[in-house]
Design brief:
Family: Belongs to the SIMIBI class G3E GTPase family. ZNG1 subfamily.
Number of strands: 12
Number of helices: 12
Strand order of the largest sheet: 3-2-4-1-5-6-7
Organism: Devosia crocina
Protein name: GTPase, G3E family
CATH class of the largest domain: Alpha Beta
Helix content: 25-40%
Keywords: Chaperone, Hydrolase, Nucleotide-binding
Bound molecules: guanosine-5'-triphosphate
GO molecular function, one term: nucleotide binding
C-alpha cells in the first residue's frame, strides 16, 4: 500500500537543528526521539571521515529512521544535498521502503552555516519534491551556556546559527557554577541583541519539552534582522552566479583554513591509564584550540563496554562507560576538530595511542 505523503497543502514539517560544535544537538535530538514521539526522519551529517555520530543516536527502539547525509567539506558545503535527500526520503516513502513520517529533523554539523540550507528549503520550487511535500517549519539552535557567549562573539558562524533561530535551546546551564544567574542573564542579553524574536528555552526546564521546541509553523525570514536577510540574499543563485562572495565565516583571528578534522581508528584495546595520559597531554597542549573531540574507546579491562568521551572547546565533559557497543563496529574511534594546531604534530600525537599488546604466556 502506498504511504500517505505530505502534500502541498499539508507538507511534512522539517526542523533544522543547528548550533556550534559540541553545544548539545545530538543530546537534545535523542531527547526528542522518545519512543512515544511522532515518527521522525532524522538526517545527520557524519562528522569527519570516521563514523561515530550515527552510533550516538538512539534511533533503535523508537519509531524513527536515521538518514545519513554527506556534505563534503565540513566548513564550506553544508547544505548541498539536503534537498536531494528529502527527495530520496519521499521516494522511499512512496514505494513503501520507509513508512510515512510525521516530521523531519535535520541535525547540521557544528560547523555548518545554516544560510545555504535555509535558502535551499525556502527556494525549493513547488515543482520539486522538497518544495511540494516538505516545508521548513523552524530553526532550533543549541546555545552552550559554558562557551556560547564567547563563541558567538568570536565566530561569525556561531553568530549566524543564533541569528537564524526561532528557538534557542540553552544547554549545559546545569554546569554553570560561577554566578549562574549572572551568566544566564548575559546569555539572554546576547540572544536579545542578536535575535530578539527568538524564544529561549533552557533544556533543563521541565517546560522545554520536545513538543515546545518543535511546534509546527512555517519558517519565515520576514521581520528578522537585516543581517539575516542579507545572508539569505548572498545565497541566492543570482548572487552566486555574479560571484558575490559570502563573508568569511570566521572573524579576524579565526581563519577558516586553520580549522581541520583528524580521525584515528584503532583495532584492539587500550588501557585507561593510556587514555588518561593521552588526553591529559592533548588538553594541556591544545587548550581551547581543541574545538571538539569525540571518541568511542575500547578499554582493555572490559572491551565489551566502550568508553565515550567528549571534549568541547577544551572542556572535558563527564565520560560515560556504556553498557555495550552501540553498533557492530567495536573499533576505537576518535574524531578531532582542531583550530590552529600544527597539523603534522597533532597527527603524530594521535598515533601515539596504540593498542595494548596482549602478553602470551609461554606454553
Ligand atoms: N551537563 C550537561 N551536558 C550536556 C548538555 N547537553 C549536552 N551535554 C554534553 O555535551 C557533550 C556534547 O554533546 P553533543 O550532544 O554530542 O553535542 P553536539 O552539538 O551534537 O556535538 P557536535 O555534533 O560535535 O557538534 C556531551 O558530553 C553531552 O553529554 C546539558 O544540557 N547538560
Amino acid at each position: 500500500m502506498k504511504q500517505a505523503l505530505g502534500h502541498f497543502d499539508n507538507p511534512v514539517p522539517v526542523y533544522l537543528l543547528t548550533g556550534f560544535l559540541g553545544s548539545g544537538k545530538t543530546t537534545l535530538l535523542n531527547r526528542m526521539l522518545r519512543t512515544d514521539a511522532p515518527r521522525t526522519a532524522v538526517m545527520v551529517n557524519e562528522f569527519g571521515d570516521v563514523p561515530i555520530d550515527n552510533d550516538l543516536f538512539k534511533v533503535d527502539g523508537t519509531a524513527s529512521d536515521l538518514i545519513e547525509t554527506s556534505t563534503g567539506c565540513i566548513c564550506c558545503e553544508p547544505g548541498n544535498d539536503i534537498v536531494s535527500t528529502l527527495a530520496r526520503l519521499s521516494e522511499a516513502m512512496d514505494n513503501g521502503e520507509v513508512s510515512a513520517v510525521d516530521r523531519v529533523v535535520i541535525e547540521t554539523t557544528g560547523l555548518a552555516d545554516p544560510a545555504p540550507i535555509i535558502n535551499q528549503m525556502l527556494m525549493s520550487s513547488h515543482h520539486s519534491i522538497a518544495g511540494r511535500f516538505f516545508a521548513l517549519a523552524a530553526v532550533i539552535t543549541t546555545l552552550d551556556a559554558l562557551k556560547g557567549e564567547e563563541t558567538v562573539e568570536e565566530r561569525l558562524l556561531a553568530h549566524k546559527q543564533l541569528a537564524f533561530a526561532d528557538r534557542v535551546a540553552l544547554t549545559k546551564a546545569d554546569m554553570l557554577h560561577d554566578d549562574p544567574a549572572g551568566r544566564r542573564e548575559a546569555l539572554a542579553a546576547l540572544v536579545a541583541r542578536i535575535n530578539p524574536s527568538a524564544r529561549i528555552l533552557d533544556i533543563q526546564d521541565p517546560l522545554a519539552q520536545p513538543e515546545t521546541l518543535l511546534d509546527h509553523g512555517i519558517y519565515a525570514p520576514d521581520g528578522r534582522s537585516m543581517d539575516v536577510l542579507a545572508w539569505l540574499k548572498d545565497e541566492s543563485p543570482l548572487a552566486k552566479a555574479f560571484g558575490v562572495q559570502a563573508p568569511s565565516q570566521w572573524l579576524p583571528g579565526n581563519r577558516h583554513s586553520d580549522v581541520y578534522t583528524k580521525s584515528l581508528v584503532i583495532e584492539g584495546s587500550v588501557t585507561s591509564r593510556q587514555v588518561t595520559t593521552f588526553l591529559d597531554i592533548l588538553m594541556r597542549a591544545a587548550g581551547d584550540r581543541l574545538l571538539r573531540l569525540k571518541g568511542l574507546i575500547s578499554l582493555a579491562d572490559d572491551p565489551g563496554r566502550p568508553y565515550l568521551i567528549h571534549i568541547v572547546q577544551g572542556i572535558f565533559h563527564p565520560p560515560q562507560r556504556l553498557q555495550s557497543w552501540p553498533s557492530q563496529d567495536h573499533r576505537t574511534r576518535l574524531v578531532v576538530i582542531a583550530d590552529g594546531i600544527d597539523e603534522k604534530a597533532l597527527e603524530s600525537f594521535l598515533l601515539t595511542l596504540k593498542p595494548k599488546k596482549v602478553r602470551r604466556s609461554k606454553s
